[in-house]
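Training component of the fellowship. As part of building independent skills, the fellow (R.M.) carried out the full modelling exercise for a liganded target. The chosen ligand was thiamine diphosphate. The inputs are recorded below so that the supervisory panel can assess the work.
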Amino acid sequence: MAYLKKDMIDFHKAYSHMLRLRVAQEELVKHYLNKKVFSMVHFYIGQEAVATGVCDALKVDDQVMGTHRSHGHYLAKGGSFRMLAAELFGRVTGSAHGKGGSMHQVDRSVNFTGSSPLLGSAVPIATGVAFAQKYLGKPGVVAVFYGDGASEEGVVYETYNLAALRKVPILFVLENNQWSINSPIKNRRSQGYNLEKIATGLGVKYEHADGNDYEDVYTKTVKLVGSIRKGGGPAVLECLVYRHMAHSTPLMEEKHRTGDVLEERLKKDPLKKLKIKIVMSGVLEKKLAKEEENLRQKICTDIAWALEQPYPSKEELYTNVYN
Amino acid sequence: MSTTKNGRTNVREPIKYADALKEATEQLLVSDPRVLVLGLGVPQGTGGVGSLAQIYPNRVLDMPTSEAALTGLAVGASIGGLRPIVFHDRVEFSLLASDQMFTQAAKWRYMFGGNGGSAPVTLRIVVGRQWGNGPQHSQAFYGMFGGVMGLRVVIPSSPYTAKGLLIAAVRADDPVVMLEPRWLYGVKEQVPEELYEVSLNKARIIKKGSDITVVSYGDALFAARQALELIGDTTRVELIDLVSLNPIDHKTISASLKKTRRLLTVDTTSSAFSVGSEVIAKAVQGGVEFMVTPQSLACPDVPCPTSSALSEFWYPTKVNVANAILNILNKPKIDTKLTFEELHMAPTVTL
Ligand SMILES: Cc1ncc(C[n+]2csc(CCOP(=O)(O)OP(=O)(O)O)c2C)c(N)n1
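Fellow's submitted model of the complex:
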């Protein structure tokens, strides 16, 4: 659904896409707190502009892969929310039959190819998927999401090199939220660290985007993916973002964060930013409120459905190990 | 317990497994300037020793998210004369450093015929079950670690052994992997205040008995302890904590089997290539004349799922262990329903 020109972006539609991610997770948070989610979770609240901005710039044939924090990536690519909810509740009708849980998102019907919580692991795998795509003469490109923590794994640097060497049609989407669980980036990198130099030094294109700004992410993705599609080789899109919640719980305040405090994070909330933009362009706030209410209702209906779903039976333990 | 200067005995409160490890770490830092601790998030609390970073900011170190490099750095630092303790919050993360653990540190002494010194690094690696973590976050790989020659591999099953093994590991002139079942972090026990060592290569007899030897380790041993409580009269059961997977203390096991001639092993990993299989194989090769075919209780030969509806059937419970014992002793089964908490939440009991 890539828009051709920047001025053709339908911001209202983009806002609805982002809002779906936000509301879906807000509602899941409630159930997590009510102890209905027996799966380790990592909420994506605050980072929605990245998943949505990137996925809106992709085509249906393009594939996406992710991480432990992939509710948003999955939904932005068009993944079924009710199956995601059922998966988090451990039900048999979940997207992975309850075997995976939150950290293992998949919906191949919309080309969300999979996600893994092992940091960096999906980066070479996604590159392999893209390699196969090119090898088989198929049109799609692949976008892989990973964090600043994951980007420190050796295999990620190795993959930049390999992808450039083979001109693999892959977009590396690095979501830099500046934390690896509780480790701030300053504990992990020297002052001279410069990813742009690393990536370009390895022959990979590099762009920096404001991950709180849908438009910035979207337009830069369009540009990079355009070049990747034409055989121009891989690119890194590094998006600076904030995760609003704690690493793996819906906690909003963490005492060890300084500077990057909740107040600052909320100020830069990507949804707020986009909302102001569309209201300025003449969309009525009342209309938006109504739309949000409808969306929330739909999400709650899906959750209610998911909570009614049966658990997997004991026999399911033994299925899907081998063919 | 410890004795004060005026001869009175102080009874310390039981402490948690995690706190026993912290106490050992602090005492090691105090007593040996070569000791340092490193790992992702360690100064912020990962590994349970975060507060020590305030006292020793240059010895309790945060790291980039780069397991291969940070483990390699620690291996090198140990060759260079330091005694690093590396912390990996899950075994899956440590595997990014498999070369450094299995092929470098483990072989350093041997491959230079002893002329290259050794790599006396200590790796604290968290393993095993935790609700909702599933196929990629709850593996243990006990058998794999046990199969690496040149590595010492120990598994603390209690706060007492946790503290003593960590101290022995850091003092040992060999690389030691300590596999710590996360399931046990909240279990409490009285632990001596002073520095003490628990042998890195000896099994421990937890309870003497006459008619059946139960061999286990880690969180499986915890289930076995609880099974004994369920059974009630346990004079017939001898319970052995393996403690070490490399080497396995076959001597202690065979001495016990000579007496009982019945054997049950309990693992919390898949049955295939389990530690139990190794114990049984060596016991049979050792010529024990069993009265009943040795039995192994372990997890199914499939990955561990995430949904609690499925993981419920993955781990042997205390009821399963009790019934396996009773079956070998030819006694009637017991039928106890376990609660959701008992099945899925980590225990907080005092041993
Ligand atoms: C190989 C590996 N090491 C460590 C971890 C533990 N871990 C899980 S998420 C996380 C933080 C990752 O940070 P980042 O990649 O920036 O993603 P974020 O959580 O910030 O979205 C860590 C260290 C892991 N999952 N995999």
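The panel noted the following from the submitted structure. The radius of gyration of chain B is 20 Å. The mean pLDDT of chain B is 96.
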